[in-house]
Amino acid sequence: MPAPLHVQLSSRQRRRLMELRRDPDLASRERDRVEMYLLSAEGLRVPQLARHFGRCEATMRRWIRQFEAEGLKAVRHKPLGTGPDHARRQTVRLALNGLLSRKRTWTAAQLAEVLAKEKGLVMKPDTVRKYLHLMGARYRRTKYSLRHRQDPVQATAARERLGALKKRLATGSWTFSSSTRPASAPACPPPTPGAGADNGPPSPTRVPRDNA
Question: 137-166 b/e with 16+ CB inside 10 Å = b?
């Protein structure tokens, strides 16, 4: 059975960790490492450290091994990451330039879909928006971006009709064509005597007097 994994501290390393522990500007992740190294040196095992810091045991083992390899530098350990992929960025820019040159409008989601299907460049719409921003592309309203599709003659006639309509609305002058003129209401027939209540009350009936 392998021996428990612990941090072995020299007196100088312990003093330096205690100083870092009191540093108010120390980042939280770095402070956790300082605390963990001190507790590990006091005899706490990896499972106990993992429960105390709310991390997995693999992380605790990795931190201890980093201290064994780097010493106090492990407190501010920064993993080596890959640099920016300049070749991919250039490929994405060229692909976007080709799509934007087409005579149509695009959304970021549509561009992401076409890039994945045609170029094999898989990315989220938010990533596409970042590329467009870096390339200097700007949002344009649809009515302006579709102007190149309009028929000039029809567009001019439509604007003239709209202008005439606005002018009539402003002046209150209207004319009706035969298709829009309202139909005349039918004339009412003359009243017939005795045919309704509008002819007045009926004349009283004269009753002959009895002379007898």
Answer: eeeeeeeeeeeeeeeeeeeeeeeeeeeeee
